[in-house]
Amino acid sequence: MKKTSVSIMYEDEKLNAVKMYMEQRDLDFKEELEKSVDTLYAKYVPANVREFIDMKGSQVKTPKPKKPKPQEENTEVVT
């Protein structure tokens, strides 16, 4: 599934503090943030919609077969 970037404004000192204390516990800020967004997704998006999105995402896109290019004849005249 295609991913997108999310950007928010947050107080610099608070962000630095949370990253520092998470680092002390060997936790990754980005991973924890992704878990939080997943929790919001599960909480607010209805189950049937989540199932539909999961089904769409699991469908393997098969590449369209390419049409063979017609071979050009060698029209060079040798004299």
- Shape designation: elongated
Q: Work out the count of structural domains.
A: 1
**Can you tell me the residue ranges where pLDDT is under 50 for at least 5 consecutive residues?**
none
Give the topology string: H per helix, E per strand.
Answer: HHH
Counted beta strands? 0
Work out the helix count. Answer: 3
The overall average pLDDT, rounded, is 88
Specify the biggest β-sheet. none
Rg, rounded, reads 26 Å
Structure report:
The chain is mainly α and 79 residues long. It has one domain (10-79). Helices cover 52% and strands 0% of the residues. The protein has helices spanning 12-24, 29-44, 47-58. The longest helix is centred in the middle third of the chain and has 16 residues, at 29-44. It is elongated, with a radius of gyration of 26 Å. The mean pLDDT is 88.
Sum up the structure in keywords.
mainly alpha; single chain; 79 residues
Q: Secondary-structure blueprint of this entry?
A:
Blueprint: H1 12-24, H2 29-44, H3 47-58
